[in-house]
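Support request from a user on the community tier.

User writes: "When I paste my structure tokens into the form, the page sometimes reloads and wipes my input. The last time it worked, I copied everything first. Here is what I submitted, just in case something in the input itself triggers the reload:"
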């Protein structure tokens, strides 16, 4: 894709459409893919159901983390590791997805990995501490693989509607996270305060998604197998600035997923109330995840919008941590608006800083692989600081340090430049 093409495609739908092109996809094949058919919409239903399962394993643990820790005798550091492990797996296992798709077909891989996701969810409810950590690892690895494959399937089968449908995909992610955060504790209470049932029940949506996805695994045709090589990306400073912004901003929402309910419980809320606050904050992200890229692409660069959404995120975090509880919902809404915008902009920057779709795809792999690995350190650091200080006040320093780093690299990544990398057909 020429530079002028990227410059003309300023609407966020076009930008996400370019971002989500599969690294192995052949350009001519993608451009001539037919418009969605009735069977395509059945595929879309399956995609939405699968996407709904990519966050509950992360957000369902947070409201019950205190009960799980007390029941199994976990220290705050061990609990921090428990919240870190799935996020770390998002980065470590993501590179496996393209290899598995080339060998077995993307649809078949998604079906198989949905099963491992369900097994991971139920395993962490059984077998004590060992099952808890093993199940969290398996669930995180499963989410990492599926999360890489679904955007490529959307781009391949809905090339004319990929931007819009990825908005639906993003909303399904947020909805799954919000549902798990808000209903896990009530489910646990209904079953005699059984945290194991509260966590394990999220296996059922994964099995439902398998049921609707099975026809795709039988009839799917897999990813295209034309490979492109991108040279110079890992040596480019701008690529690292985009990657570090992705990783640092991602660290804050995973801290929120893992620890915000515990922080609020420590401030006097009940587990149910804390879960609802997290759920509400995540739902609000639906608005800014669609709106922030649209606003950001109306100026000459994205730096101002990056500053606004990051400051909103930090203000919401500090408000939830320190401000009077009477205004908690206002701070939670501000936090959701900020975090929805920071994540959406991180994806948009990957496209805007790339000269063509193949560079964008490889930059996406670099930013998510390295970025999520970096992001996983945030929840662990919060648990460690809480363990050392026996309180939550000092956690604000982590918020400040991560937020400041994200602002620095976001300002650099937000400049209207391209990474100096070259794509060539192998």
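"...and here is what came back when it finally went through:"
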């Amino acid at each position: 894709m020429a530079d002028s093409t990227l410059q003309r495609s300023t609407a966020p739908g076009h930008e996400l459409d370019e971002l989500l092109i599969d690294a192995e996809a052949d350009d001519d094949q993608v451009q001539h893919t037919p418009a969605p058919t009735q069977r395509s919409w059945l595929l879309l239903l399956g995609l939405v159901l699968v996407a709904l399962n990519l966050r509950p394993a992360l957000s369902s643990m947070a409201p019950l983390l205190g009960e799980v820790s007390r029941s199994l005798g976990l220290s705050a550091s061990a609990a921090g590791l428990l919240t870190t492990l799935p996020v770390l797996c998002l980065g470590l296992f993501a590179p496996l997805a393209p290899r598995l798709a080339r060998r077995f077909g993307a649809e078949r891989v998604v079906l198989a990995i949905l099963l491992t996701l369900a097994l991971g969810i139920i395993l962490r409810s059984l077998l004590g501490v060992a099952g808890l950590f093993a199940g969290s690892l398996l669930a995180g690895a499963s989410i990492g693989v599926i999360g890489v494959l679904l955007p490529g399937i959307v781009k391949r089968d809905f090339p004319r509607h990929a931007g819009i449908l990825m908005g639906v995909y993003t909303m399904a992610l947020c909805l799954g996270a919000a549902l798990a955060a808000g209903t896990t504790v009530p489910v646990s209470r209904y079953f005699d305060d059984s945290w194991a049932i509260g966590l394990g029940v999220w296996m059922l949506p994964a099995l439902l998604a398998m049921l609707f996805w099975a026809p795709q695994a039988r009839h799917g045709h897999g990813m295209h197998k034309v490979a492109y090589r991108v040279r110079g990306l890992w040596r480019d400073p701008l690529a690292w600035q985009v990657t570090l912004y992705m990783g640092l901003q991602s660290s804050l929402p995973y801290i929120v997923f893992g620890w915000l309910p515990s922080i609020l419980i420590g401030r006097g809320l009940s587990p149910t109330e804390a879960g609802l606050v997290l759920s509400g904050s995540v739902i609000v992200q639906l608005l800014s995840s669609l709106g922030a890229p649209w606003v950001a692409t109306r100026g000459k660069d994205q730096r101002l919008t990056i500053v606004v959404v990051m400051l909103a995120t930090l203000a919401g975090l500090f408000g939830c941590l320190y401000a009077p509880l009477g205004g908690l919902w206002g701070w939670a809404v501000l936090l959701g608006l900020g975090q929805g915008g920071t994540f959406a902009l991180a994806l948009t920057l990957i496209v805007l800083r790339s000269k063509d779709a193949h560079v964008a795809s490889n930059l996406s792999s670099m930013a998510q692989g390295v970025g999520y690995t970096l992001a996983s350190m945030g929840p662990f650091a919060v648990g460690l600081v809480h363990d050392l200080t026996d309180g939550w006040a000092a956690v604000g320093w982590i918020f400040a340090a991560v937020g400041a780093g994200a602002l620095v690299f976001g300002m650099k990544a937000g400049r209207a430049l391209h990474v100096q990398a070259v794509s060539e057909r192998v």
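Agent notes: The reload is a front-end session timeout and is unrelated to the input. The first strand starts at residue 228 and ends at 231. The chain is about 75% helix and 0% strand. Escalated to web team.
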